[in-house]
């Protein structure tokens, strides 16, 4: 018998599941009626199962001849022959009829063991089972049961020494019968923790209670490197007074069942250990760490380049048509792709993870991040596409093949005793990801065909996690690219404003949200400040935000006042909602949005603003006082049918205006007024640069955890002083044009802009002439020197000039065309008094 450390501690109640399922019930002896007979046929041991079958208690049977239990008298010659057969060590099996205590007769299968010595006298172990039709088997099978049964059996005396052992137990344990008889288990099988088994047998001797189906693990002397599992049952043998006088035990090799359970547990545990993050390399390392040493001594995970580096642009699995020159692309179901070196047809992979029972993984030729091209025989790239796992039980032949082409790998195989390998392609959702290789070295047991299935399952689970991580990384990169494209890269405040901003999405891992801000240069040196908030988070809210931001830019180019711009934006949101299909399947419905739009004029130092359901701005005066101007609230965007109102405030030189979203002021207490008070305190800090002030304010107010997106836009105002602005009244007389041109030329020379003198005279001449011809009322010319040279001509007409392409025979119609060619940009804006036509020219570069 083999033995090892038991699964339950000595003294603990052993498990009581049903006994091992056998191919035929006749071989299941766990419930047989068992008795021990002396050499003369007297009953000297009686078990509970015998009492259950025949109804006799131990005191009624022990000490009496067994013949009284038989329903019919047996031929003495036949009985003597059976005894001689058993004394010869062969045992006997047959059919008999017994008499129950209640007088009923029952036909039973009888089994008599070979004789053995019990307390110095000859004894036989007899077992009986009620015959049923489905139990009837050939006589030859029954004759060999006790000696060659698939169940190992033994009888122990009260000192737990072996009295009798059948052939199966001798084979299971690998210890010859003659080395067992008369010796204890702990003497025969030292070092295998047989003491734990003997403890259970002593409990059976003490209590008389059998132990059924006790499982433990150990090694057979016939195969000392391969661990095995056994199921054992212990039954007491009782004498005439009912005292237990010995132990009968039966053992079955359940290694296959135990291995199946271990493999199932391995795969189940993998689900909790692999895929804990959405990081490709981390997931690959989790696979390697999990499998060592539970399944292998060395695990290597190699991923295709686009999988190992999903954040880099390039070929993704699933794009076989975009392989670079010299790289083959092999599709899987038309969707996957394997990149290979054209010269060798080996896939281009990178080492993503590895783990070993040896510190530092010295067995590996490549390090993490290195390019690798190893695939097992048949060394074909299509192995990754459609191949099955490869099992190489003995690596010796492979090492000989590698010694010429890849001597470094062959050297590692010999140096570290790598002797068995399983290589499994990693595939998920019709996408090829890479290759996982399991190797054994310290564990001397080679991989078996049954090990391929758990290896495949481990890799399949890891492949799904790797693919999820790969897809997430790709989508996350796309989301970040979208967010970066939607938010401004620069904040062009020009000479009118110094600007700083901060943006923190609520979903930090995705990095996208629905808040936005903007700084838009307008005509006449004015600057528009915008902040908005789309309800929701993530990529859908970001996409909707992008549409609204684009619309604001378009409306701002029309130089609309803030209240009119919000009215047009409100109409757009209504149309977007109407375009949404029934059920809202597109995910682009604007469930709610707020916006604040402000225009700052550095000439007048006045700021005009309107809001649509958005919090009011914070204004910090040059002396440090903080206030929140009372603006008409306005409804959120998308309600329709309600007007928006604008308000004006003065912003002297050095004033600070803060536009923000409600995520900044609605902290954990969800009290906006308290949040506004905290914001005012944060903005009142003196002596900080604008960027540092913005960062400090967000740090002080940001709640943890952050429930909503946060955006903060700070702008410090500057005045466009009188020496940068000149304005003249122009008489409504064509003769006045020449004087205006002369005054413009002198002004440009005083500003040091002689290079722009000729073009500016032409622009002024054309714009003033058009105003004199087509407009009525007062005409005014204004020149502004800022980061650009601005020329504005205002009149009381609401008719907008139109750019025309004159024919060669036309005498006029080329004025605005020339203006468009000579300026950086030009346009028209409307005022309560009429309109303003404006142009911008780039200033000449100065210095070297």
Number of beta strands: 35
Poorly predicted runs: 1-29, 133-143, 313-344, 808-812
How much is the radius of gyration in Å?
47 Å
Distance between the termini: 98 Å
Write up what this structure looks like.
The protein has 848 residues and is α+β, with helices and mostly antiparallel strands. It is built from 23 helices and 35 strands. The strands form seven sheets. Strands 1, 2, 3, 4, 5 and 6 form a six-stranded antiparallel beta sheet that branches. It has a six-stranded antiparallel beta sheet with strand order 17-16-12-20-19-18. A five-stranded antiparallel beta sheet has the order 8-7-11-10-9, sandwiched between helices. The model is unreliable at 1-29, 133-143, 313-344 and 808-812 (pLDDT under 50).
Element layout with pairings:
Blueprint: E1 33-38, E2 43-46, H1 48-54, H2 58-61, H3 76-87, E3 92-99, E4 105-112, E5 116-118, E6 121-130, H4 139-143, H5 145-148, E7 152-156, E8 162-165, H6 167-173, H7 185-188, H8 194-207, E9 211-220, E10 223-238, E11 244-253, H9 255-273, H10 280-291, E12 298-304, H11 305-308, E13 327-329, E14 339-341, E15 346-347, E16 349-356, E17 371-372, H12 382-386, E18 390-392, H13 396-405, H14 407-415, E19 420-428, E20 431-440, H15 452-486, E21 497-504, E22 513-521, E23 527-537, H16 538-557, H17 562-579, E24 593-601, E25 606-612, E26 618-620, E27 626-627, E28 647-650, E29 656-660, H18 662-665, H19 672-683, H20 690-701, E30 710-717, E31 725-730, H21 736-750, H22 757-774, E32 779-785, E33 788-795, H23 815-822, E34 825-831, E35 834-842
Antiparallel strand pairs: 1-2, 1-6, 3-4, 4-6, 5-6, 7-8, 7-11, 9-10, 10-11, 12-16, 12-20, 13-14, 14-15, 16-17, 18-19, 19-20, 21-30, 22-23, 23-24, 24-25, 25-28, 26-27, 26-29, 29-30, 31-32, 32-33, 33-35, 34-35
Helix pairs in contact: 9-15, 10-15, 13-14, 15-16, 16-17, 19-20, 21-22, 22-23
